[in-house]
Write a structure and sequence with these properties.
Helix content is about 25%, strand content about 25%. It contains two helices and nine strands, in the order βββαββββαββ. Helix 1 packs across helix 2. The longest helix has 23 residues.
Length: about 160
Protein backbone atom coordinates (compact mmCIF):
# COMPACT_ATOMS: atom_id res chain seq x y z
CA UNK A 1 0.00 0.00 0.00
CA UNK A 2 1.14 3.51 -0.76
CA UNK A 3 1.83 5.92 2.08
CA UNK A 4 1.29 9.63 1.65
CA UNK A 5 2.84 12.39 3.73
CA UNK A 6 1.28 15.80 4.30
CA UNK A 7 3.35 18.64 5.68
CA UNK A 8 1.75 21.75 7.10
CA UNK A 9 3.51 24.73 8.62
CA UNK A 10 1.85 26.54 11.49
CA UNK A 11 3.14 29.93 12.67
CA UNK A 12 1.81 31.50 15.89
CA UNK A 13 1.24 35.24 15.42
CA UNK A 14 -0.46 35.92 18.76
CA UNK A 15 2.46 37.17 20.87
CA UNK A 16 1.24 40.53 22.17
CA UNK A 17 4.60 41.38 23.70
CA UNK A 18 4.70 39.22 26.82
CA UNK A 19 4.11 35.81 25.27
CA UNK A 20 2.14 33.39 27.40
CA UNK A 21 2.88 35.20 30.66
CA UNK A 22 -0.85 35.00 31.45
CA UNK A 23 -3.85 33.18 29.95
CA UNK A 24 -5.30 36.50 28.80
CA UNK A 25 -1.99 37.99 27.67
CA UNK A 26 -1.63 36.24 24.34
CA UNK A 27 -3.63 35.96 21.15
CA UNK A 28 -4.68 32.67 19.65
CA UNK A 29 -3.95 33.86 16.12
CA UNK A 30 -1.82 31.74 13.83
CA UNK A 31 -1.25 31.08 10.15
CA UNK A 32 -1.44 27.73 8.41
CA UNK A 33 0.64 27.24 5.28
CA UNK A 34 1.54 24.38 2.99
CA UNK A 35 4.67 24.53 0.87
CA UNK A 36 4.02 25.52 -2.72
CA UNK A 37 0.59 27.01 -2.01
CA UNK A 38 0.00 30.72 -2.47
CA UNK A 39 -2.75 31.13 0.12
CA UNK A 40 -2.17 31.08 3.86
CA UNK A 41 -5.13 30.21 6.08
CA UNK A 42 -5.63 32.63 8.97
CA UNK A 43 -6.41 30.61 12.10
CA UNK A 44 -7.35 31.21 15.70
CA UNK A 45 -9.29 29.39 18.38
CA UNK A 46 -13.05 29.32 18.63
CA UNK A 47 -14.35 32.63 20.06
CA UNK A 48 -15.58 30.67 23.11
CA UNK A 49 -11.91 30.03 23.85
CA UNK A 50 -10.72 33.63 23.40
CA UNK A 51 -10.24 33.31 19.64
CA UNK A 52 -10.82 35.69 16.75
CA UNK A 53 -14.22 35.03 15.14
CA UNK A 54 -12.90 36.36 11.81
CA UNK A 55 -10.34 33.52 11.53
CA UNK A 56 -10.83 29.80 10.94
CA UNK A 57 -10.59 27.58 14.00
CA UNK A 58 -9.41 23.95 14.12
CA UNK A 59 -12.92 22.67 14.77
CA UNK A 60 -14.28 24.35 11.63
CA UNK A 61 -11.34 23.03 9.62
CA UNK A 62 -12.01 19.48 10.81
CA UNK A 63 -15.65 19.70 9.70
CA UNK A 64 -14.53 21.28 6.40
CA UNK A 65 -12.02 18.45 5.87
CA UNK A 66 -14.71 15.83 6.34
CA UNK A 67 -17.05 17.67 3.98
CA UNK A 68 -14.42 18.13 1.28
CA UNK A 69 -13.11 14.57 1.50
CA UNK A 70 -16.63 13.15 1.17
CA UNK A 71 -17.37 15.42 -1.80
CA UNK A 72 -14.17 14.44 -3.62
CA UNK A 73 -14.82 10.72 -3.06
CA UNK A 74 -18.43 11.18 -4.18
CA UNK A 75 -17.58 13.09 -7.36
CA UNK A 76 -15.08 10.39 -8.31
CA UNK A 77 -17.69 7.68 -7.83
CA UNK A 78 -20.25 9.62 -9.85
CA UNK A 79 -17.80 10.08 -12.71
CA UNK A 80 -17.04 6.35 -12.95
CA UNK A 81 -20.70 5.35 -12.51
CA UNK A 82 -22.15 7.65 -15.18
CA UNK A 83 -23.94 9.97 -12.75
CA UNK A 84 -23.42 13.50 -14.03
CA UNK A 85 -23.21 15.99 -11.16
CA UNK A 86 -23.77 19.62 -12.14
CA UNK A 87 -23.78 21.19 -8.65
CA UNK A 88 -22.81 20.27 -5.11
CA UNK A 89 -23.26 22.24 -1.89
CA UNK A 90 -22.83 20.96 1.64
CA UNK A 91 -23.92 22.55 4.91
CA UNK A 92 -22.00 20.31 7.29
CA UNK A 93 -22.45 20.57 11.05
CA UNK A 94 -20.14 19.23 13.74
CA UNK A 95 -20.87 18.88 17.45
CA UNK A 96 -18.10 19.10 20.03
CA UNK A 97 -18.65 18.53 23.73
CA UNK A 98 -16.35 19.96 26.38
CA UNK A 99 -15.13 17.67 29.13
CA UNK A 100 -14.74 18.42 32.84
CA UNK A 101 -10.94 18.54 32.58
CA UNK A 102 -11.01 21.43 30.09
CA UNK A 103 -10.64 19.29 26.99
CA UNK A 104 -13.30 18.10 24.63
CA UNK A 105 -14.10 15.88 21.72
CA UNK A 106 -16.27 15.80 18.67
CA UNK A 107 -19.32 13.62 19.18
CA UNK A 108 -20.64 13.77 15.61
CA UNK A 109 -20.50 15.46 12.24
CA UNK A 110 -23.43 15.48 9.85
CA UNK A 111 -22.88 16.22 6.18
CA UNK A 112 -25.87 17.68 4.32
CA UNK A 113 -24.91 17.69 0.66
CA UNK A 114 -27.40 18.97 -1.89
CA UNK A 115 -26.45 17.50 -5.24
CA UNK A 116 -27.78 18.47 -8.64
CA UNK A 117 -27.62 15.83 -11.38
CA UNK A 118 -28.58 15.85 -15.04
CA UNK A 119 -31.99 14.58 -16.11
CA UNK A 120 -30.41 11.47 -17.65
CA UNK A 121 -28.65 10.45 -14.45
CA UNK A 122 -30.00 7.81 -12.06
CA UNK A 123 -31.11 9.59 -8.85
CA UNK A 124 -31.22 6.33 -6.84
CA UNK A 125 -27.65 5.54 -7.89
CA UNK A 126 -26.61 9.10 -7.04
CA UNK A 127 -28.05 8.67 -3.54
CA UNK A 128 -26.46 5.24 -3.05
CA UNK A 129 -23.02 6.52 -4.07
CA UNK A 130 -22.96 8.68 -0.92
CA UNK A 131 -22.70 5.48 1.14
CA UNK A 132 -19.76 4.29 -0.94
CA UNK A 133 -18.13 7.73 -0.74
CA UNK A 134 -18.33 7.56 3.04
CA UNK A 135 -16.56 4.19 2.99
CA UNK A 136 -13.77 5.63 0.82
CA UNK A 137 -13.30 8.95 2.62
CA UNK A 138 -9.80 9.07 4.12
CA UNK A 139 -10.76 11.62 6.77
CA UNK A 140 -13.99 9.90 7.88
CA UNK A 141 -12.02 6.66 8.21
CA UNK A 142 -9.59 8.45 10.53
CA UNK A 143 -11.94 9.91 13.14
CA UNK A 144 -13.42 8.20 16.20
CA UNK A 145 -16.91 9.70 16.07
CA UNK A 146 -19.87 9.11 13.75
CA UNK A 147 -20.04 10.99 10.47
CA UNK A 148 -23.55 10.99 9.04
CA UNK A 149 -24.76 12.01 5.62
CA UNK A 150 -28.19 13.45 4.85
CA UNK A 151 -27.93 13.89 1.11
CA UNK A 152 -30.56 15.46 -1.10
CA UNK A 153 -30.44 14.65 -4.81
CA UNK A 154 -32.14 16.99 -7.26
CA UNK A 155 -32.50 15.78 -10.84
CA UNK A 156 -32.54 17.82 -14.02
CA UNK A 157 -29.78 20.19 -12.94
CA UNK A 158 -29.95 22.62 -10.09
CA UNK A 159 -29.33 26.34 -9.99
CA UNK A 160 -29.58 29.06 -7.44
CA UNK A 161 -28.46 27.09 -4.41
CA UNK A 162 -28.24 29.15 -1.25
CA UNK A 163 -24.68 30.12 -0.31
CA UNK A 164 -23.24 29.19 3.06
Amino acid sequence: MAAHRYEVRLHWTGNRGTGTSDYRAYGRDHEIAVGGKTVTIPGSSDPHFRGDKERYNPEELLVASLSACHMLSYLHLCAVNEVVVVSYEDEAVGTMTETANGGGRFTSVTLRPRVGITAGSDAAKAKELHHQAHELCFIANSVNFPVGCEAVIVGGGMTGLPRL
